[in-house]
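Milestone M4 deliverable, item 7.
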Amino acid sequence: MKGLVTLVMKGRVQAIVATVVFAMAALLITPMAVVSAAIVVLATLRNGAREGLLVALSGILAIAGLGGLMFQMPLALALLGLMLWMPAWGLAVVLGNSGSLARTLETAAFGGLAVVGLQYLLLQDPAMFWDETLQQLVQLDPAAIPEDQQREFFAVIAGWMPGGIAASWLVSMSLALMLGRWGQALLDRPGAFGAEFRELRFSRTWLLLLPVLLGLSFLAYGGEPSLAGQFYLVGMTLFLLQGISVAHALVNNLGAQAGWLFGLYFLLLVGAPHSVTAVAAAGYADGWLNFRAKVRGSSQRPPSE
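Output delivered:
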């Protein structure tokens, strides 16, 4: 893996080519978009904001050209590159200047809040927009699910789509940031990213903000989709990351087998959304109780005689 990262960082041309290739691969395998954005992050962290911007802008021009030649859609692919790489570049600049992964992820969360706000501002009725979009994109068999149940199903999902889209964007940008940071550590300071991620903690502002948003969502809107509820989804996504960080730290501090982490990720996938909510709740609780400090203290305490 280090050889691949070294090859990508060998020069500007290699970084641009890798960025575009992974972005094109994302048209078939969606997670490749995260790898593409991570290369922009890595180029920015290692070579500075100007170099990272050149990689991103050159990649946008290249993918627009390929989009015109292959699909006759240069503008659509240019927009894809713009939406994928410019936020990644901006967050990498924040990370490079601050040196704090937690503060940078909080900045990304504010970007997620902006994604929600823009949907409410531009779409007028986001729930109706997403309801119509989902019904066009997702075709279910009326024999298996009656049409009235389909309409009810789409209406429920559509109501929470603004926050879901924003949370998904936040997860994608967070993964790109962490993958880029891991690549930087792999080349310059092996093992540094793991130590940094295991200490991931978000500020008390978010700890205080989330109960307010949750209270507004239930007291003012009865738990129905609302702007406060959508913001709450974005905030809880941060604590999902902190919950995963806590799990990594506990496994490391207790000397447990890595299989526990594989089990965690498996449960996150197959048990969603309940498993995701549980891990996010654990991350939020850690914000107040600091489980990692307690485990370190107990493991370092000398045995009683």
